[in-house]
Amino acid sequence: VILSEHETCYDEGIELVQATRAAGVPTTVGLWRYMPHAWFLFSGMLPEGAQSLNFVSEWIVEQMSVK
Question: The pTM is what?
Answer without folding.
Answer: 0.81
